[in-house]
């Protein structure tokens, strides 16, 4: 195929668009790949659509290769199935809702678990029908509070979502691993750097959960990797390595002390070192136990007070807390009114009394896993200006359970306990595979007859990739200061051919090369613009558009050479005109 | 590719679905191509999606072949552009509207004229950029009052819509004809019978307008064709052939007569023949002039009374009236309150006085083109029980204009005046091409600089095809009593291979044939189901699913023959096993 710049529906821009926050967004607009139609909603211009389609085709090929079958659900969905799983309520403001002319409720599908589950229930009834993997590549909608970063977080976007259906957990493991392998092939082909990280699975009820993250400084996701082993995890999913109980036979009894004017950890530590100095080592924030209170509202409308106890040197990580509380749960730190409503909780001095024996009804107390039996803490004494010292977990207080929501820091030990330490990095969530389990099958009553004629609930896996986000993530990972620079498999063309000059001979040679390359199956974006468009403008456009191989028919032609440039590395070579087509074909098919 | 029935996500049904009104809908559900998700909203199962994609690919190829460039707009669109063209209001209940979390108005795009116009305005600025044709294949939404007939009239459906942009009318003609030729190639390839008919263009402001209709008895569109020439037109677009004025010098003066109890045309004609018998011929309904009143509400909220005068032997055709009044205009016949509000209009006896000199303000009077100057009529005398005879158009009364909304009947003369008569037929609107002109370019200010540096408004053409409707229309046109029967180019597979029997040898032979055909590039739907599935069930499924060539490996295998059956004609041939693959390849590639 030959695309001619003189006719291609594109207009490159020299200036960055005002609303573009990240390089991929700036460059995709400037190079004429996309245009914004509304906040978080984009039009795909011809070049952008070509890249998107190539990504979709790669995904489709790899899905088909593992025997997954493509179907397509509507985007406009009735309320009822989402009511059955409670997600109509859980999604809150996060989805687009509408009514038809008869007043019936609809939503624009943000994900299609319900539809996948119901279609299998409709068609299948026996264990013999399983395993089954089905998928779609389809437009999805989320009413993001703050759509940002162009295609990276849109309100209308494309998703490939697949689901596996198995009769038992062993089958689910097989389906999960097939998808995992397919995802590795897909991400390898997409040509950008990625990490596979462990992700939260608790809230969704399944057991295994991994994310594929594109490494990118603009990414919204923080993940950690071990300095020694191959452990990597989304920050939400990081666990504290198991800690053994500590002997506490020789710890003196807990004793309350006056600690006036110590409402913060910092003032408390200073006070401890001044008035209660230890011989062996100074007090630090890590010796203190901080109790942080939240008001938590569940999707069913009920609220509770949640107290999180954690070492004083760490903050609660809101994203981790959000992930642990699960979808549709809203939380906020205790405010003055909340404290006023719980007079036994002494703000700044909350301690084991108020969270132990005297705990008010409706308060749940969960502690960080570092608070294991036998550990010694300084914490509030439940009255202003007083703290308890030598408070031993398990001896002097206990909690309702543990929660892993303390911030994760560079240098924290690897959960695998191999001596490595964690380092954080940022990424863009590009794919998510997880064992969904029986949550939706139970809610929507998807059962099949097993070998013994008994009805069993089907277990599901869920596997998603965002092709539209992938366009931006690849651009993010591969661009340079001159413009986009596509990996070959997703580039909108194989070769960007530039006729650089005004001479008839240059255009004639370029035209001939375009046709010869086309005949060999090479896709050519041919800059055939005549008249006022200077070679300089054409070179700039070629760098901006980012086709991986740039062929320049210019001054060298008189001496019988044509320049071939690698967009990514900038390497140039002068190729004899006679060998040009062969040389380019070899580069393209390499 | 080999698809195995044992693994294919499909379930055929022996019973018709309760909600299916037309054969295509019944069969597409029974054969496992689609499932209903909500009224007018469907899920595409794997077989259905394959047919849909093949149709889309044919359309894409032919669009690309005329140099049209593909892009893709969002389906979720902001209100503002539709406000600028007044369509936000005009669409009334016909579109889905919604608000985002910030309360901003959006719609689900029913068509994208505004978006196409604006993107060209954004990117282009000179006559040198034109002509341009751009298109998309995309999901569209209409909140139909009564979604019906499965995919034939859905609320979520797929459309290919393209638009051409030219600086002048001559350019538009060229673009229009290119699209027309491409449409002919597309419809020829889709493999069903179609008619190209003249369509209404007036309301949209353009000049040329044609529809591509699939011939189908279940079609919602009525069209006419001439018994002699190649004239064909949508009923909305049919014109009365020009009629010359009639001399009326010897017509006596109009005279009012008592005609008690003649509120209907039938009673009036009886009365005339009884009391005012003519020598030359009896009175017929065609001698009477019927004045029918409507209340018309325009999109801007204003209302008017419209009186339509037409020969008494014809009714007003609501669809023709709707088409003439234009999009967003709502009308209803005069009710008792309307008559009460206009006391000068004597219900059942409305005549030239009330519609002429004494016409109330706010009433518009339009007549059928058969009411030419000099024609003689019997009509109401504006008082109950009285009619005027020998009323001559142009002498005794005149109207505000003409309107072509009288019903079209079999036997009406061809508008080309060649002596042929019209016959009506029914069809499904599959494509519509029309010269849109400057309506949207003017509303959205799309101008380019012409050769002289002067700003000129661009003129547009609009060209649409519905691929999802095409799936149903093809099924409608090609099915038989046994099931679906796809034309080869859109079939979900080339060959339906049936292993008919229980013997190991049959399955081994079928398996080998499947692989050999696959190697030759033939797509095989292989019914490899073992166990309880009888040959009879497999044959029924093959007929129902409708792949054009059915290969049966069965009893004949022992004698070295395999049956090849043509699904459409039912022709069978026994082919020697050794020649089977070659024979099938020849059939498939024919």
Indicate the topology.
The structure is a homodimer of 590-residue chains.
Chain A: E1 2-4, H1 23-30, E2 34-38, E3 41-44, H2 46-65, E4 69-70, E5 76-78, H3 79-84, H4 87-90, E6 97-99, E7 105-108, H5 113-123, E8 132-141, E9 156-166, H6 169-190, E10 194-198, E11 209-215, E12 221-226, E13 232-234, E14 255-258, H7 265-275, E15 289-297, E16 303-311, H8 318-325, E17 330-333, H9 336-341, H10 352-355, E18 363-367, E19 376-380, E20 386-392, E21 401-402, E22 422-437, H11 439-443, E23 447-449, E24 455-457, E25 459-465, H12 467-478, E26 495-499, H13 504-519, E27 524-527, H14 535-545, E28 549-553, E29 561-566, E30 572-576, H15 580-589
Parallel strand pairs in A: 1-27, 4-8, 16-18, 18-21, 26-27, 26-28
Antiparallel strand pairs in A: 2-3, 5-7, 6-7, 8-9, 9-25, 10-11, 11-22, 12-13, 12-22, 14-20, 15-16, 15-17, 19-20, 22-25, 23-24, 28-29, 29-30
Helix pairs in contact in A: 1-12, 2-6, 2-12
CATH class of the largest domain in chain A: Alpha Beta
> What CATH architecture of the largest domain in chain A do you see?
2-Layer Sandwich
Considering the protein shown, what is the CATH homologous superfamily of the largest domain in chain A? Answer: Bira Bifunctional Protein, Domain 2
Strand content of chain A: 25-35%
Query: What is the CATH topology descriptor of the largest domain in chain A?
Result: BirA Bifunctional Protein, domain 2
Provide the helix percentage of chain A. Answer: 25-40%
Subcellular location (chains A, B): Cytoplasm
GO molecular function, one term (chains A, B): aminoacyl-tRNA deacylase activity
Catalytic activity (chains A, B): tRNA(Pro) + L-proline + ATP = L-prolyl-tRNA(Pro) + AMP + diphosphate
Pfam families (chains A, B): HGTP_anticodon (PF03129), tRNA-synt_2b (PF00587), tRNA_edit (PF04073)
């Amino acid at each position: 195929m030959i695309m001619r710049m003189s006719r291609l529906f594109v207009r490159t821009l020299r200036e960055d668009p005002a609303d573009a926050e990240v390089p991929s967004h700036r460059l995709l607009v400037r190079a004429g790949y996309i245009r914004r139609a509304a906040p978080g909603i984009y039009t795909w211009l011809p070049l952008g659509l070509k890249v998107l389609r190539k990504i979709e085709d790669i995904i489709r090929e790899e899905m088909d290769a593992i025997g997954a079958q493509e179907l397509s659900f509507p985007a406009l969905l009735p309320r009822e199935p989402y009511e059955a799983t409670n997600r109509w309520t859980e999604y809150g403001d996060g989805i687009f809702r509408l009514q038809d002319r008869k007043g019936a409720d609809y939503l624009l599908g943000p994900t299609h678990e319900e539809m996948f589950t119901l279609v299998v229930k409709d068609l299948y009834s026996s264990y013999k029908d399983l395993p089954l993997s089905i998928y779609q590549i389809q437009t999805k909608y989320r009413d993001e509070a703050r759509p940002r970063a162009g295609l990276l977080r849109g309100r209308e976007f494309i998703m490939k979502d697949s689901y596996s259906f198995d009769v038992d957990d062993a089958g689910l493991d097989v389906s999960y691993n097939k998808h995992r392998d397919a995802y590795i092939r897909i991400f390898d082909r997409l040509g950008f750097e990625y990490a596979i990280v462990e992700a939260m699975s608790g809230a969704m009820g399944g057991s295994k959960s991994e994310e594929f993250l594109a490494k990118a400084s603009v990414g919204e996701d923080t993940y950690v990797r071990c300095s020694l082993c191959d452990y990597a995890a989304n920050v939400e999913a990081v666990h504290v390595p198991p800690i053994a109980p500590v002997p506490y036979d020789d710890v003196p009894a807990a004793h309350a002390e006056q600690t006036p004017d110590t409402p913060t950890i910092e003032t408390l530590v200073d006070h401890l070192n001044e008035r209660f100095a230890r011989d062996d080592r100074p007090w630090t924030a890590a010796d203190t136990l901080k109790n942080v209170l939240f008001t938590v509202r569940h999707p069913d409308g009920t609220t509770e007070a949640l107290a999180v106890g954690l070492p004083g040197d760490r903050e609660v990580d809101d994203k981790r807390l959000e992930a642990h509380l699960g979808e549709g749960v809203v939380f906020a730190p205790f405010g003055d009114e909340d404290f006023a409503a719980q007079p036994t909780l002494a703000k700044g001095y909350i301690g084991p009394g108020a969270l132990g024996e005297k705990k008010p009804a409706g308060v749940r107390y969960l502690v960080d896993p570092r608070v294991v039996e036998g550990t010694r803490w300084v914490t509030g004494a439940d009255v202003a200006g007083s703290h308890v010292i030598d408070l031993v977990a398990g001896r002097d207080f206990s909690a309702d359970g543990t929660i892993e929501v303390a911030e994760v820091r560079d240098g924290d030990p690897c959960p695998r306990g191999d001596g490595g330490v964690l380092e954080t990095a940022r990424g863009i969530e590009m794919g998510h595979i997880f064992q969904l389990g029986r949550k939706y099958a139970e809610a929507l009553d998807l059962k099949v007859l097993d070998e013994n004629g008994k009805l069993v609930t089907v277990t599901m896996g869920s596997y998603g990739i965002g092709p539209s986000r992938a366009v931006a993530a690849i651009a993010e990972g591969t661009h340079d200061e001159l413009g986009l620079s596509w990996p070959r498999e997703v580039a909108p063309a194989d070769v960007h051919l530039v006729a650089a000059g005004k001479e008839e001979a240059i255009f004639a040679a370029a035209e001939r090369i375009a046709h010869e390359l086309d005949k060999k199956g090479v896709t050519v974006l041919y800059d055939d613009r005549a008249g006022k468009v200077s070679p300089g403008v054409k070179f700039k456009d070629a760098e901006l558009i980012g086709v991986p191989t740039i062929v320049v028919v210019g001054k060298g032609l008189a001496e019988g050479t044509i320049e071939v440039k690698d967009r990514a590395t900038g390497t140039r070579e002068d190729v004899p005109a006679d060998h040009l087509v062969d040389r380019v074909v070899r580069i393209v098919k390499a």
